[in-house]
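Hi L.,

As promised, Peroxisomal trans-2-enoyl-CoA reductase:
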Amino acid sequence: MPEESTWRSVFRNDLFKGKVALVSGGGTGIGKSIVIELASLGATVVISSRNEEKCHKAADELNALGFSGKVAAGPSTNIRKEEDIQKLISHVVERYGALDILVNNAGGQFISDSADISKRGFQAVVETNLQGTFLMCREAFNQYMRDNGGSIVNITIGNRNGMPGMMHSAAARAGVENMTASLCVEWIESKVRINCVRPGIIFTESGFENYGPAGEYFLEKIVPSLPAKRLGSAEEVSSAVVWLLCEGAGYVTGSVICVDGGGSYVALPLVEIEDKTNLPTYGYLPMKAKL
Ligand SMILES: CCCCCCCCC/C=C/C(=O)SCCNC(=O)CCNC(=O)[C@H](O)C(C)(C)COP(=O)(O)OP(=O)(O)OC[C@H]1O[C@@H](n2cnc3c(N)ncnc32)[C@H](O)[C@@H]1OP(=O)(O)O
Ligand SMILES: NC(=O)C1=CN([C@@H]2O[C@H](COP(=O)(O)OP(=O)(O)OC[C@H]3O[C@@H](n4cnc5c(N)ncnc54)[C@H](OP(=O)(O)O)[C@@H]3O)[C@@H](O)[C@H]2O)C=CC1
């Protein structure tokens, strides 16, 4: 047991006191839950997304709940646009004097068979999730973290077994995870740590609203196949994010934490596959039809 005078748990209320954080997509769902954690632990948090009004509403709501003044909406930002990102990062650095923490949570996709995804559709998803995350990281590094250090978490998606029906997003997020592996080495000299959190299926009203009946399919078909037998909560994601961001994770960089109730380790029925043998067999022993 360490001496009492030197003992201090990493889990304490002022963990992020004096820190300035930026959470993209922080006005809704998982992002909002990350904002609540960071502000509760003392950080000043800027949130941004395309819909500025939504971010102002969320900031007002959270400040009224007791985070008085700790949460602020930044300018409207589409992470598909480089100039929006440059303006957002300079806004944070100029107005708050720092950018210690960046959470790249903004992202999304539509559900589609891969054969039906147009070039524009594929580009839109890659620009949002891979290019957008890269440009946010690059600007945060160039405008602040290169000289001052910092911590970055990128939110990805449960893509270990691919993701039939959301191929474009799973591929883009795999790119984010590999980019993270490169950046963690390139930027360690600047004392920048960068990690990913890979959520499985997390219930957020905002997220599921996008999917209509496809969202219902997820709930009905996939949940019973999940080892945890339930969806995850936004709070279960945000608690992993704040741990990665905090000083207690000081030796963790380039890693990916799965928050998925074990979903990565089973084959999920993400698409219906017709019950007939349609892959031709190569071999000499006669096989029974169903084996
Ligand atoms: C453990 C394991 C767990 C495994 C299981 C894991 C489950 C994961 C569950 C994940 C949940 C979430 O991510 S929840 C988060 C959900 N939230 C979101 O997705 C919101 C953000 N998404 C978006 O904004 C959109 O999806 C995105 C495509 C990125 C941008 O859309 P925009 O309309 O702005 O794009 P545009 O530039 O106007 O359109 C470009 C083209 O995109 C295509 N396109 C856009 N929307 C389309 C649509 N609904 N259906 C078809 N095609 C579409 C068209 O081809 C468009 O071209 P034209 O036709 O020529 O115009
Ligand atoms: N819920 C789930 O099961 C899972 C979610 N994820 C990922 O977690 C993140 C949060 O999802 P969740 O909270 O569920 O859903 P939300 O729809 O609430 O979150 C997505 C956020 O991203 C913002 N956003 C989307 N596109 C852009 C853009 N081009 N520029 C700037 N902001 C953008 C949205 O705001 P606005 O529309 O105002 O721009 C919104 O606030 C997303 O990246 C999602 O893909 C990953 C795995 C599973």
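The longest helix spans residues 119-148.

Thanks again for sending the construct details.

K.
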